[in-house]
């Protein structure tokens, strides 16, 4: 079925049907619902080329994918993309992904923006003083940032979680359990979320007159191998930490392997809290010792960013310019009272 046949079936002009499908605000809700129901019943699919000519819109969200020899992919990003895609499918939007060398992201984003192939841009893995922000602000194209850029004025559209608050609350719980020797297993030190999570730990410890020793901080890619290596290092320190904060359940997977290999008991000799991104293959409640976590869904964040981008393109707003989501602290068996000091 083509647009002409669909419009004849509905008794509406082709222009009205097209505008209803593309979310134009001047089409009333009853007509839009009627058109959408007919689309569902007939299996009509709009011709993308014709739709683009009629609306000037590509129906696409653009993102740059850093890639290079030795550059590792990230399971967390995959879960976020699943949410972004889930919402894009609902609106018949596409992704345009431009691979680029990690050192060429600014130029790659600009090329993508001026290509005419996308209506909006999404960026992630924000860094302190992120060099992509000035370029994004110079464009006349909608964009949303997942995260924030530490040290930069927050005058851009973003969705982020309260990373500092999450790790402040997690540290406070461990302090209440009597722990005084802490270690932090964090993501790469240049990334915004890692900066804020470290600051949250430091702030909570400072309230009790404690400090986070540099030997007790690990910055690395969030893989189980890095979690294993970091925990092995912490366990070899003269004063072994009893409270561990992990930036991801993936890191926690390796950390727990090291704890088990050392013959220690999680939740008794060592307490551990991980940031849980509700990863489908790493459910914290299914660990041999269920993990205490700070919870926030990456998939839900992906859905929300897609809603904002697509809604802005379709002029279906208004949408909030900035959103800061709180995390949940879910207490399970991996945290317990500090062991008695010998």
From TrEMBL:
What are the coiled-coil residue ranges? none
InterPro entries on file? HTH_LacI, Lambda_DNA-bd_dom_sf, Peripla_BP/Lac1_sug-bd_dom, Peripla_BP_I
Which one GO biological process term can you cite for this protein? regulation of DNA-templated transcription
- Which GO molecular function, any one, fits this protein according to its record? alanine racemase activity
* Known EC number: 5.1.1.1
One Pfam entry name: Peripla_BP_1
Entry annotated with the keyword DNA-binding: yes
Q: Does the keyword Transcription regulation apply?
A: yes
Instruction: Provide the HTH lacI-type domain boundaries.
Output: 1-55
Cite the entry's keywords alphabetically. DNA-binding, Isomerase, Transcription, Transcription regulation
Report TM segments. none
Q: Which Gene3D superfamilies match?
A: 3.40.50.2300, lambda repressor-like DNA-binding domains
What is this protein's record name? Transcriptional regulator, LacI family
């Amino acid at each position: 079925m083509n647009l002409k046949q669909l419009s004849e079936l509905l008794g509406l002009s082709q222009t009205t049907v097209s505008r209803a499908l593309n979310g134009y605000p001047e089409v009333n809700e009853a007509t839009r619902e009627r058109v959408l129901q007919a689309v569902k019943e007939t299996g009509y699919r709009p011709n993308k080329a014709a739709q683009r000519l009629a609306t000037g819109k590509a129906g696409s969200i653009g993102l740059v994918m850093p890639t290079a020899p030795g550059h590792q992919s990230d399971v967390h990003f995959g879960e976020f993309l699943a949410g972004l895609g889930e919402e894009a499918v609902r609106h018949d939007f596409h992704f345009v992904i431009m691979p680029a060398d990690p050192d060429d992201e600014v130029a790659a984003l600009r090329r993508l923006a001026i290509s005419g192939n996308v209506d909006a841009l999404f960026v992630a893995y924000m860094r302190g003083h992120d060099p992509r922000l000035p370029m994004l602000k110079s464009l006349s194209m909608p964009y949303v940032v997942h995260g924030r850029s530490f040290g930069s004025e927050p005058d851009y559209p973003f969705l982020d979680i309260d990373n500092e608050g999450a790790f402040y609350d997690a540290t406070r719980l461990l302090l209440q359990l009597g722990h005084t020797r802490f270690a932090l297993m964090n993501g790469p030190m240049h990334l915004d979320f890692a900066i804020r999570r470290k600051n949250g730990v430091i702030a909570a410890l400072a309230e009790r007159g404690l400090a986070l020793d540099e030997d007790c901080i690990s910055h690395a890619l969030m893989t189980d191998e890095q979690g294993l290596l970091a925990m092995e290092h912490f366990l070899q320190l003269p004063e072994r930490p009893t409270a561990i904060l992990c930036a991801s359940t993936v890191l926690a997977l390796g950390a727990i392997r090291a704890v088990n290999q050392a013959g220690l008991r999680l939740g008794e000799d060592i307490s551990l809290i991980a940031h849980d991104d509700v990863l489908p293959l790493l459910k914290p409640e299914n660990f041999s010792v269920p993990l205490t976590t700070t919870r926030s869904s990456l998939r839900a964040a992906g859905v929300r960013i897609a809603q904002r981008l697509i809604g802005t393109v379709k002029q279906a707003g208004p949408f909030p310019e900035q959103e800061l989501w709180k995390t949940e602290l879910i207490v399970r068996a991996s945290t317990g009272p500090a062991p008695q000091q010998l």
